[in-house]
């Protein structure tokens, strides 16, 4: 096998859940190679390096082997090398930290009392109640 369609390869490498989602990503300009946006029908060859823009970061991958069949997650590293820059991965970590709220996972929605406490804490009148000593600041 000398070449594989972009949408088939992205689906086979588990970058996208379905082939139609991979094709839509190509049509919307999220897949590029050497600064050129790829169409779903374009083909990948061994050694090609391409970019995938997902969320806030851009992943970079290198094609090591070709296949049209979807692989198990453990086999993907034999076919695809992740060459994503460390700066992009830092952006991902920052986005994860920003998405975390002050509540523990699995505690459910805030109760009415929790909501009232949060609103009181966030209000300006609560800050006015605090004794700020401007000389110390």
Summed up:
With 137 residues, this protein is an alpha+beta fold.
Polypeptide structure, described:
This protein has six helices and seven strands. The protein has helices at residues 6-12, 19-27, 76-79, 86-99, 112-122, 124-129; strands at residues 4-5, 31-33, 36-37, 43-44, 49-54, 57-63, 80-82. With 137 residues, it is an alpha+beta fold. The strands form two sheets. Strands 3-2-5-6-7 form a five-stranded antiparallel sheet. Strands 1-4 form a two-stranded antiparallel ribbon.
What are the main properties of this structure?
single chain; about 140 residues; alpha+beta; Structural Genomics Hypothetical 15.5 Kd Protein In mrcA-pckA Intergenic Region, Chain A; 5-stranded antiparallel β-sheet; two-stranded antiparallel ribbon; about 35% helix
């Amino acid at each position: 096998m000398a070449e594989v369609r972009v949408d088939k390869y992205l689906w086979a490498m588990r970058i996208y859940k379905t082939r139609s989602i991979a094709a839509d990503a190509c049509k919307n300009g999220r897949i590029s190679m050497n600064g050129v946006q790829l169409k779903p029908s374009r083909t990948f060859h061994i050694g090609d390096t391409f970019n995938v823009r997902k969320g806030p970061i851009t992943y970079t991958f290198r094609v090591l082997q070709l296949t049209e069949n979807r692989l198990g997650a453990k086999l993907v590293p034999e076919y695809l090398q992740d060459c994503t820059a460390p700066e992009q991965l830092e952006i991902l970590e920052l986005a994860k930290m920003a998405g975390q709220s002050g509540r523990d996972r699995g505690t459910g929605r805030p109760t009415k009392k929790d909501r009232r406490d949060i609103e009181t804490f966030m209000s300006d009148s609560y800050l006015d109640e605090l004794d700020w000593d401007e000389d110390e600041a």
